[in-house]
Design a protein that fits this description.
67 residues; mainly alpha; Helix Hairpins; 3 helices; elongated
Length: 67
């Protein structure tokens, strides 16, 4: 199952919780990167894309509710 389909099955509350956790992780990754402690720099990109995917799924649900 893809990440997008898994997120589409999650509730909005669960998506919000996951997004908050990802924002915190992104902050920590940026801090580690700035202090040259980050080994896996590609994780920054992965986290950014997961946040974007969550925002997209939430937007799809809001658009669907308005119709």
């Amino acid at each position: 199952m893809s990440v997008a389909s898994e997120m589409r099955e999650m509730s909005v509350e669960a998506l919000d919780d996951k997004m908050k956790a990802l924002y915190q992780e992104a902050f920590n990754l940026r801090f580690q990167h700035a202090t040259a402690q980050l080994e896996n720099t590609s994780r920054i990109r992965q986290v950014r894309r997961e946040i974007a995917l969550i925002k997209t799924v939430i937007g799809e649900r809001k658009a669907k509710e308005e119709v």
